Amino acid sequence: METYRAIVNKRDTRALRPDPIPDEVLARILQAGRMAGSAKAAEPVRLVVLKDPARRAELAACGNFTPHLLAAPVVVAIVLVPEVDQPHGQFAIFRGPFDAGRAAQNMMLAAWEAGISSCPASMHHAEAAAKVLGLPPGHVVANTIAFGYPAGADPVTGQRPRMPLDDYVRWERW
Question: What's the CATH code, domain 3-153?
Answer without folding.
Answer: 3.40.109.10
